[in-house]
Each structure stands twice: as structure tokens, then as C-alpha cells.
Amino acid sequence: MPFSPANFWDSLSAREKEIYGRLFSTFPLAAISGNGLLALHGGLPELGSLEEINRIEWGDEQWERILWGDFVERGGEFLGDWAGRPQFGRPYFERMMDRYRKRVLIRSHQPYAPLFMFKKSCITIFTSYAYLPDRNVAIADMEKEVLTGEDLVLEKI
Q: What DSSP letter does each residue of 30-93 carry, written as one string?
């Protein structure tokens, strides 16, 4: 079975997808800090508050957003699907970040996204050699308030 990111999920049978999906659903969906940071894999879910995140169930629309959602530096809330990946624009990003009272999102799902989007409040880091030879990690001082992505240390690995 190939483990290349572009075809791994598509190479699975329905049963294997369910097994992986259920396994992945046992992992935390997000890391939420008190200093203005939120970290997750893909896009932001649309919830009343971040406290609801632990009620998201495997395979539902909000789970899909967190795992497969992408951001595009354009106007418009929902910009459609691209290859099964929901696309969201600046208004959606800003509305959700305001609702959750977070200033910076660190995410990784979208390998060819710009490092910074939305006035440096969305950072896309990617750590897989499968797509890009140069990868970044973001380091935050959890004792300091984070106002923009510039308040983090970004290191190439």
C-alpha cells in the first residue's frame, strides 16, 4: 500500500478508511492555548465556541473541516470544494477567529499555501518531505501573548 500523501487515503478500502478514521478520531482535534494561539491540522470548524470541539464526531462536517479544510487569501466565506477539500476565504477565517477569541492559527494541511496568510494571523507549516524539501516548525513562548505570526519563532528543519 503506498504511503505517499497524495494517494494514501485514496488507496484505502472503505473498511481501512473507517479503521484509520476511527483511530485518528481518538487524537485531539486541536491544541488550544490561553495566549492567543490555536493549532490544528486543516481548517477551522464552525462551532459556537471552542469548548464544543470535543463533541465533534468522526466523519461529520466539522471533523472534515478540521482535517481537510484549506484557506485561500480571497474574499468569500465558503469558496467551494477542491478535490474534496473545503476552501474558505478571509471572511470565514476572521469570523471564526473572532468567535474563538484567538489571534493566530497554526496549521499544516495545505503544503503549497503561503507561510503567512490573513495579515500574518494564519501560519501554514508543513513538515513532510513528500511535498516540499524545505519545511518549517513554529515555536511559541507559552508565557507570552501572541498577537501575530511574527511573535513566533519559525525554524527551517
A: EEE-SSSEEEESS-----SSGGGGGGPPTTSHHHHHHHH-EE-SSS-SEEEEETTEEEE-HHHH
